[in-house]
Amino acid sequence: MITNDRQYKIVKSQVDDFKNALEGLSFTLPANVHPKLVEAHRNAIYSKLNELLDEVNEYEDLKDGKIIISEIDNIDQLPLALIRSRIANQLTQSELAERLGMKMQQIQRYESEKYSSASLKTLIRIADQLKLKLNADVQLKSTEAPEILDIKNYPFKQMFQRNWFGTFLGSYNDAVKQSPKLLAELFSAAGINNFKYSLTKKSIRTGSNLNEFALKAWYARVLLQAKNKEPDNVFHKDVINSSWLKSLAEISIEEDAPLKVAKYLDQSGIRFIIEPVLEGTFLDGAALLLDDLSPVIAMTLRHDRLDNFWFVLFHEIAHIVLHLNENLNAIFDDLDVKIDGIEHEADVYALNALIPDELWRKSLVRFNPSYETIINQSEMMNIHPALLAGRIRRETGKYYLFTDLIGQGEVRKHFEK
């Protein structure tokens, strides 16, 4: 969906490009290409062109007052209704932000992620400003505590084997008998008894098979470790600048780099936690805020590779810089899942922070990836070759390339007790 005039101009330009591409196919058929492939290419262009034209027409109709949005009767309609209502009211993102006492970037971020991180209070406030009437019933279903703490919902045996239940010294069978009590104590100590009902303050990037109970348990464990780990210094967000990021990336060339990362973050006031993945969570990492708004980066090391370690690390740093706030205090990431909004922003930030765009655009590695060019470029940049090899694999989708450059098996060993 187009949300501002800048996007409108970009999409209009894309429409012209696709039209020109269609005209080119009409007059000149590529040599040595099967007609069915040409037809498939033409159909793909048609499909994308029609999609862009629909976006252009909707934006123009909203701006021209041909579409009026005054009331919604389904809460699922609210995010898009807020965006459309703003446009129909002839308000720019900057003007709406000014009326609400917010920064324009906050409105842009809300709209890019379809208001997924906005609190209900914020949504209602914006709707009131846009004179948008909400007419929807909200029903809350109660859940009995024994059901929430039912051992069958959790990877309880795995949690027991990792000694997650404090000073409990009994056998596994004893733990099973006391499971409601042990689970309750774990969640109470972490301060997340109502995790299931506070998901509006959390963002979860993962596939459809997520076990929320397992996620809650993993989150509790990370919080407990973080609360018991005081960093050397108080965190200030402005410490994370280009120089800080460059110095962090350069640690990658050192033999015990993952351990030195932990120390580097600690010195900057960022708690760094390694907690292996629990069954049913599929997590790579998370960015969190404690009650005092101090940040935590947690990683599972699900993929034991240096390229993955560094990308996940910088992705979570991006969330700390760009996204975490009092309305969004936890972001959980499965980076195998492709997604838009804040996750796309974090991906882009991480890639650029590890290898600056201006350098990557003209890098020989990008156009002629080989062992020699990767090694030479990494030495020039003073970073580990895994960072470059990982970027090539990620951008091309060819994950069979450079398998001996990505640091397979070079991360977990540093954190094994």
TrEMBL record:
What single Pfam family name could you report for this chain, choosing any that match?
A: Peptidase_M78
Q: Which InterPro entries match?
A: Cro/C1-type_HTH, IrrE_HExxH, Lambda_DNA-bd_dom_sf, Rad_response_metalloprotease
| Domain HTH cro/C1-type positions | 82-138
SMART domains, A to Z: HTH_XRE
Any one Gene Ontology MF annotation carried by this entry is: DNA binding
Stated family:
Belongs to the short-chain fatty acyl-CoA assimilation regulator (ScfR) family.
Its name, as the record gives it, is: ImmA/IrrE family metallo-endopeptidase
UniProt source species: Flavobacterium zepuense
